[in-house]
Amino acid sequence: MLIRFLLAALVSTIPVLAEGAADRVAIEKLIQSLGAANVDSAVFTADAENDLPKLRTIQQSMRAAVRQPMSEVAPPAFVLSNVRFISPDVAVAYAAEVQLGTMPRKIPMLFVVKKESDGWKIAVLRLLAAAVP
Question: What whole-number distance in Å separates Cα of residue 51 and Cα of residue 54?
């Protein structure tokens, strides 16, 4: 009897786990898309603060190192490190724009993302203080 109950409880959570995994993948794709040169305001919610200029400033500073003569620096990429769901439609994502090379750089960021009818969007973008090694 107890085994049936536990199996029923486990089976009932499988769709929820699958949905959560799909949402994580969608959020990761959203964060990774920020590395593209043509990011526009469509990735932000309508009620979000205008964080697009902040994002563009970060991108320009990271890409400047790639254009330096004799630089051995890879193009920057956004890397998602953790997602925590606050509700089924709101999550906090920790990510960083990472640039690998002779002088690696990392700009940690916190995103609050919101699920809307057309997918996950960024509601808030905040820069975090970089940890000193």
Answer: 5
Segments of the chain scoring below 70 in pLDDT: 1-19, 37, 49-53, 58-71, 130-133
On whether the CB atoms of residues 84 and 92 are closer than 8 A, the answer is: yes
3-state secondary structure 35-90: CCCCCCHHHECCCCCCCHHHHHHHHHHHHHHHCCCCCCECCCEEEEEEEEEEECCE
How high is the pLDDT of residue 62? 64
Kindly list the strands in the beta sheet with 105-116, ordered across the sheet, starting from the edge strand earlier in the chain: 77-87, 90-99, 105-116, 119-127
Q: Of the candidates 96, 93, 99, which has an alpha carbon nearest to the alpha carbon of residue 127?
A: 96
DSSP β-ladder status, 77-87 and 105-116: unpaired
DSSP 101: B
Tell me the per-residue pLDDT of 52-80, one tens digit each, with 9 for 90 and over. 667 777 666 666 655 665 567 777 788 89
pTM (2 decimals)? 0.70
DSSP state of 4: H
